[in-house]
Specification:
Protein name: Polynucleotide kinase 3'-phosphatase
Strand order of the largest sheet: 1-2-7-6-3-8-9
Shape: elongated
GO biological process, one term: DNA repair
CATH superfamily of the largest domain: HAD superfamily/HAD-like
CATH architecture of the largest domain: 3-Layer(aba) Sandwich
Number of domains: 2
Number of helices: 14
Order of helices and strands: HEEEEEHEHEHHEHEHEHEHHEHEHHEH
Structural class: alpha/beta
Radius of gyration: 26 Å
Largest sheet: 7 strands, mixed
GO molecular function, one term: ATP-dependent polydeoxyribonucleotide 5'-hydroxyl-kinase activity
Helix content: 25-40%
CATH topology of the largest domain: Rossmann fold
Length: about 425
């Protein structure tokens, strides 16, 4: 399918869940479009740049110069790029641009290299996270941030003057890198599942590579999710040797790990306390391991306050039912409320300690929020402050606090093959 062609119906077998919202295509009516309407089709010139907006949080721009070659009909090669700090940087030197014109090429070699790729038969596409761009209308018009983004990209594509597309994710949705939603949309726009792509000869270039000093590794993760070779701008445009990268979080490292020792019930009536970060797998562990043993669950996300949790837990204990407190319980002060409750009933209190890194917890939370099939309790996306607050308050639990025992639980993924395929992708 060539640039500017009709968009086919999206495939019903998306790997990303939940499915995108019904698309709303942005339309603009002006004198030029009215005049074009009354011009015979055979006499009309194609619009060099078109824009499409998806309500789910994606801006799509396509540039089709009047004199442009037809895309290869099979086994295409893709040259894909991040935008900021990869193709361009601010002319002012600021981290964020001051205006739509505050940009220059990342390096003087960039435009020539991109044009060379086009001449060699590569299809050019940009994938960029643009969370500061708002899709909300302002008095019926584009927001200022969206207008500025369009103006900047129009200038970039006009200067390059070759067939190319840009996909910009504006929210924390399936489209945001490293999630592969933008690639899936691009593939459907150009029928890549029909014509085929030679991924081994393609490339994705981005600056977020997980190197010391990089703000993240989202570009590297995006390339891994797509299955396309990855390079940094320094490697691709300047020919520099790849910098060694170590210690990067890889979800696949948690697919084949030793199973944890089983938790056993020791007393007819007892109180079990969880301690672990949001996203460490506490609730999943309860349903898989403790609910079958007859424990009742108390959870502050559901009950909304600690006094309510204490009240419900007391009612369970009075009914001679053992209780699991499925909260973060990060510090001794919080844990003491539950230890004191156990003392009231003269029963032992035990602790299960969830040993998950911050990176793993953020990954779990993102997968859970974005995939209904892996989110039975309909948990929403967690802000970064939730993880920061736990880290600030966390004190490692000790037996001296009054626990009969402490049961450590390293994270271990549990799920079928479909869930494993989703979970093992990069999400944050």
């Amino acid at each position: 399918m060539v640039e500017g062609g009709m968009k086919r119906t999206a495939s019903p077998t998306r790997a990303i869940s939940p499915p995108p919202l019904r698309r709303k295509v942005e339309s603009t009516v002006n004198k030029k479009s009215v005049a074009s309407f009354f011009t015979p089709t055979s006499q009309r010139k194609p619009e060099p740049i078109t824009w499409r907006i998806l309500e789910a949080g994606l801006v799509i721009g396509k540039h089709l110069p009047e004199k442009s070659s037809t895309l290869p009909s099979k086994d295409r090669k893709i040259a894909a790029f991040d935008l900021d700090s990869t193709l361009i940087k601010t002319a002012s030197g600021n981290v964020f641009p001051k205006s739509a014109t505050d940009w220059k090429w990342w390096d003087t070699t960039v435009p020539g290299k991109v044009k060379e790729l086009n001449s060699d038969g590569f299809q050019i596409v940009l994938f960029s996270n643009q969370k500061k761009v708002s899709l909300k209308k302002e008095k019926g018009n584009d927001s200022k941030s969206l207008s500025n983004f369009k103006e900047k990209l129009t200038a970039i594509m006009t200067q390059l003057d070759l067939p190319m597309s840009v996909y910009a994710a504006t929210g924390d949705t399936e489209y945001r890198k490293p999630r592969p939603g933008m690639w899936i949309e691009f593939s459907e726009d150009f029928d890549l599942d029909v014509v085929g792509v030679d991924l081994s000869k393609s490339v994705y270039v981005g600056d977020a590579a997980g190197r010391p000093g990089d703000h993240s590794a989202t570009d590297r993760g995006f390339a891994v999710n797509v299955g396309i070779p990855f390079k940094t701008p320094e490697e691709f445009f300047l020919g520099k040797v790849p910098e060694p990268v170590s210690g990067l979080f890889d979800p696949k490292d948690f697919l084949e790990v030793e199973p944890e020792s089983a938790f056993e019930r020791k007393h007819p009536l007892e109180l079990v306390l969880f301690c672990g970060s949001p996203g460490s797998g506490k609730s999943s562990y309860f349903w898989k391991n403790l609910q079958p043993l007859g424990y009742e669950r108390v959870n502050q996300d559901i009950l909304k306050s600690r006094p309510k949790c204490l009240k419900v837990a007391r009612e369970f204990l009075e009914a001679k039912k053992s209780v699991v407190v499925d909260n973060t319980n990060a510090d001794p002060e919080t844990r003491k409320h539950w230890i004191d409750l156990a003392k009231e009933f003269s029963i032992p209190v035990r602790l299960i300690h969830f040993l998950s890194s911050p990176e793993l917890c953020r990954h779990n939370a993102a997968v859970r929020a974005a995939n209904k099939a892996l989110n039975p309790e309909s948990r929403t996306s967690l802000p970064g402050i939730a993880f920061g607050d736990f880290k600030r308050r966390y004190r490692e639990p000790t037996l001296e606090e009054g626990f009969e025992d402490i049961h450590p639980v390293p994270f271990r993924f549990v799920g079928d093959e479909a869930a494993k395929e989703i979970w093992s992708q990069y999400w944050v």
